[in-house]
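Cross-check.
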Amino acid sequence: MNTEYKDFTERALQVISNPEKQEQIVLAINQHEKAIKDGLNQYDKLSVVRQRAGYLKNKVINELDRYLIEFEDNFLSNGGKVIWARDANEAKLEIKKIIKKNQITRIVKSKSMVTEEISLNQTLKNAGVEVIESDTADFIAQLAGERLNHMGTPNRVYSNEEVAELLHTKLGAPEHLTSLEITGFTKEYLSEKIASAEMSITGCNFLVSDIGGIAITENESSALTTMSLPKIQLIVAGIDMLIPSMENLDLFWPLLASYQVGEPVTAYNSIITGPKKEGERVGPEELILVLIDNGRSDVLEQEKQRQSLTCIGCGACANVCPVYKLVGGDTYGTTYQGPIGAIITPFMKDFDAFKHLSYASTLCGKCDAVCPVNIPLHNLLLYNRNFAIKKGFVTSGESRRIRWMTKAMSSRKLLDMPGSTLKNMFIRFSMKKSWGNQRHLPTTAPKSFNQLLKEKS
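Predicted model, tokenized:
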């Protein structure tokens, strides 16, 4: 058992045996599911919308090189700068160079899954840079020392009392703040940090190819605020976040809002096409985009799994996944969780170490039914499993059991030779440790269907 798999199973057992944690997960998911149901009511023909969105994203992924070149040309023409990073280490090295060159000591960030993917916050902290999350949920998680655990909305719901205690112990806020007082204190604290920051770091939702633009959608205006005041804005994005045209935003923005937060459209939608121009009062003087591969090209090489790169990051698949509902996001120990995370994470990290994620699924297909871009997620999980076996990422014991079972199942004589006692002994011997610790193993009948049929004849 590799370390990642061992850690995964241990975390899962901790969550399953913790009623309070289970209650938090159920509460967060139930709230999300209700909101999504309400949000999707705006569509008369949702299947057509999903089909159109899937077509556009697949078109980009299948011609990714062309769209990346088009986007870069337009972004540079707008006055932006582009840095290409092969992996997480290369991206962090380039970002640290920018920070050192500009003598940056304080950075404000808005929510970005890609910066979580490359563990940027910890790298900057180790370099002595103060990093402040400006999104309220992420800011609270930062104070609590917890990592983001969902692509869309956090699956950890903090009570007012918990937040008030955090603000009191970490920032010296008065005790027992009400919800309104918490909002006021947090807003004032973050405003001061944003005003004094030398650099902002944001993610993005879409890279718009035909205009070289960065599209960001949010409900709190944290990204809009953080990129308006500091002199330098750094955007960190994956190479898979492209859409063909600005005209497509009237499709993707409402679709993302509906599946992510259950709203017809989010409150703040911004398109950034370059640094501050002459006569403009706010905006960065320098706009830098770090485009990260970090395993996405490895996914692109796979004829089937490349469809996972069409994901728009709503997180809906996780919220309907029976495994995710049971163990929550923290159990995965990865940036991307649920079905989509199980598909792409092994390619982004180490396939052998993270192959277990592809098996953290019942293959029920609920994720397929809710994906806004029609990714056949449960099929891609099967392709991942097949990939692992073809690459030899299986233990010798597992290979041996598969050979035994294949040989037995291929021969009626061998299959019927041992009685049910021997068959049940084999099942316990071969599967109890890895498969039967948390469930009752199946038992074989005294006689097979074939034997019963012969007796009847």
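The longest strand covers residues 232-238. The chain has a mean pLDDT of 90. Passed to J.P. for a second look.
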